[in-house]
Write a structure and sequence with these properties.
With about 240 residues, this protein is an alpha+beta fold. The protein has two domains: about 120 residues, ATP-grasp fold, B domain (D-amino Acid Aminotransferase, Chain A, domain 1), CATH 3.30.470.20; about 90 residues, ATP-grasp fold, B domain (D-amino Acid Aminotransferase, Chain A, domain 1). It is about 25% helix and about 25% strand. It has an eight-stranded antiparallel beta sheet with strand order 5-4-1-2-3-6-10-8, sandwiched between helices. The protein has a three-stranded antiparallel beta sheet with strand order 9-7-11, with no helix packed on it. It starts with a helix and ends in a 10-residue tail after the last strand.
Length: about 240
């Protein structure tokens, strides 16, 4: 269709369609590693909407993802201070590389790690590595799970009203770590998420229990999104005659 036309004009590259896979990232900083669980939106466009550190994994799956992430890092650089390698975990335990990055993970992943692990600051370790050039092998110990979820607009148009997230969290008895709106009132918003710029903000929560964290992220996000109000813009009328 017309929506795909700009992508076809420069030529087409065929890739294997990977289905029924979960996405994770192997994150590394100056000798410390962990695995992050990623959740993406459904539909024509896939954008990451949620991250949880650390990913709740069995020892075997953790080892598979770590091996994949480490292998990917070796393909681009044998000695770098930071990696953020995205991996698909497919049915049967097979892993597929999505992308390799020699940088911190986006969506505040390092900030989530700082809260999820005991006495662990990825930013401080990265700076120390950059200044001193030393790699310190350290296995971060989790004190719980920390997650971020991005917020969607219910419709396209101009943002008219957003609820107070702190008040909503108190009503739902959810302890809030952070809440930020990325869009201001009267800003243009869309309900069709194409990438991370389509979201209107985010929430960050922590829990010692993974199931509780997942439920609270979804519950609070839905409570916020259901109260957001958008002024829909009328489609321009066509001249007749």
């Amino acid at each position: 269709g017309q929506a795909q036309k700009p992508y076809r004009e420069g030529g087409i590259v065929l890739e294997e369609l990977i289905q029924s896979a979960r996405e994770y990232s192997w994150d590394y900083v100056a000798g410390s590693t962990w695995v992050t669980e990623k959740t993406t939106t459904e539909g024509a466009y896939r954008a990451e909407i949620q991250q949880v550190v650390p990913a709740p994994l069995t020892t075997e799956v953790q080892a598979r993802l770590a091996a994949a992430g480490r292998h990917m890092s070796g393909l681009v650089s044998l000695d770098n201070g930071a990696y953020h390698n995205e991996v698909f975990l497919r049915s049967g335990g097979l892993t597929s590389a999505v992308e390799t990055n020699m940088r911190p993970g986006g969506m505040h992943i390092w900030d989530l790690a700082r809260l999820a692990f005991v006495n662990f600051d990825p930013w401080e370790r990265w700076v120390r590595w950059a200044v001193e050039g030393k790699t310190v092998h350290h296995h971060p110990v989790a004190r719980g799970y920390c997650g971020i979820r991005l917020l969607r607009a219910p419709a396209g148009g101009l943002l008219r009203y957003v609820p107070d997230i702190e008040s909503l969290a108190r009503e739902l008895d959810i302890k809030l770590v952070e809440a930020v709106y990325a869009k201001r009132l009267s800003d243009s918003v869309t309900a069709r998420v194409k990438d991370n710029t389509s979201f209107i903000g985010h929430i960050v929560l922590f829990s010692e229990d993974y199931g509780q964290l997942s439920a609270n992220l979804l519950r609070l996000a839905e409570a916020i999104e259901s109260r957001v109000e958008v002024t829909c813009l009328a489609a321009p009328s066509r001249a007749v005659g």
